[in-house]
Amino acid sequence: MKPFLLLATRAEDVPADEEYALFVQFTGLSPEQLIRVRLEAGPMPAYDLDDLSGIFVGGGPFNASDPPSKKSVVQHRVEAEFHDLLDEVVARDFPFLGACYGIGTVGAHQGATIDGTYREPISVVPVTLTEAGASDPLLVGMPREFEAFVGHKEAISVLPSSATLLASSPTCPVQMFRVGSNVYATQFHPELDLDGITTRIHAYADHGYFASDELELTLAAVRRAAVTHTGRILRTFVERYAR
């Protein structure tokens, strides 16, 4: 089998390593079958898409809607690299699944409006599939409504015409979309379990996702409901695209 690629941007080792471990766990891939590249540490290597089965993008600290003057040199580099990669991915309709930061990369590439209108605090929210989502092959076996972990400072407020809306939540209309037949993005985190999001809450306590006195409230918010279905999306992606 050709390997899958995980493009990551987390600079903190503990949540970065746990993110990779969770992708391995939920995809069912071995470490040899899931190549990780930490883009915050250096330039994106050149990959021939013919040598890969598919691409995952994890979450991260960058916000596509930040003013250019507030973006670091690293963020500018990473955004340029994603733009070039997505030129080829979208043109070839190559298997791609971006989670959280991944929705910003695909959304920005396709001309979506991305801003803070529908930001969501770190929590569990009910996500509902659209008619298109309920019939999408990647979402086969998913309930029409399911709980998911979220936590983001920006979101897509206007979806581009090239995208098909697959899922929404009451506080964020664009929770998942598809471009073409094989390029997917989610605002929620399909790779997270309770331990994983707890690690991130502690790791990013001073990153503006919640006030300094809201740590316990935030930890309680992610325990509000059980999240049991989202990891299936990653396994189905692998089953559908492994070659």
From TrEMBL:
CDD domains listed in its UniProt record: GATase1_1
Domain Glutamine amidotransferase: 49-194
Parts forming coiled coils: none
Gene3D superfamilies: 3.40.50.880
Record InterPro entries: ChyE-like, Class_I_gatase-like, GATASE
Keywords, sorted A to Z: Glutamine amidotransferase
UniProt cross-references to NCBIfam families, sorted A to Z: PRK07567.1
Protein's UniProt name: Glutamine amidotransferase
